[in-house]
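Contributing new records

If you add data, match the layout below exactly. Sequence lines come first and carry their own label; structure lines follow with theirs. Keep one chain per record. Anything else will be rejected by the validation script.
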Amino acid sequence: MSLKRLRAGLLALLLLPGLVRAQSVPDTLLQARLERLVEGFRGDAGVYVRHLPTGRYAAIHADTLFPTASLIKVPILIKTFDAIERGELAYQQELVYRDSLRYPGVDLLGSFKDGEKIALSKMVMLMLTMSDNTASLWLQHLCGTGTAINAWLAAHGFEHTRVNSRTPGREAARERYGWGQTTPREIAELLVMIREGRAVSPAASEEMYRTLTRTYWDDEALSQLPPTVQAASKQGAVSRSRSEVALVNAPHGDYVFAVITKNQEDTSWDHDNEGFVLLRDVSRLLWEHFEPDTPWQPAPGSERYR
């Protein structure tokens, strides 16, 4: 075997999320705390946590399939940047919006007038910062559709994460999981891939990570972190599922976590929805576990801003 082929093979192995498992060490204390936290949850909950410097991890149904809701926008983001790297798209190119692209809801892009122009970079911002569905579906189409996104995921070792909506052959999966499907472990390790500069290219990873740190939706997991601490994140929610994935740039080392629910009995959209509460409780527990010497509590009255 040539040296070139050997290097290519080693690189492919390093990209596989499964390799992470062999390098990780179970955190038994954290595992017990998380299990107590999800006990009694009226529905199915999956949790995956990994402390990047030490490899300590905890997992509850971390390899079980869950609906992504808007978490699927992370794979759309990666394939969009892959298309940019290939010269198929340009980050600052102008695109013409048409009314036929509008997805029903309260999206900002959907309020545009037919014929208005928008830069692709601003669509990426809308997809992640505002979770704009119209922008996301347009980007899904532009980067090669769900078929191309799924091919990239499969080629990089992500066995379970897939786009279902508007993707031929995925109709049955869409009926069951909606727009997309993933596992807590895989969606978390996608964020790690970006953080470590292994998604598409180092330059693309840096820009993706910057954009992932600018979310508007900071009511749940992010509300339990000090505002001075940076986190890359994506949130998702449909009636019977609430989810969040975040990579926290904590003082004593980065940690990543994903919490996803399904089959929730509580389908309300109130602040005290069981799924939203679980997201906040897990995030709070993780901060206290990994940063015991950095005490912090949300300021009194902060709930009026949630």
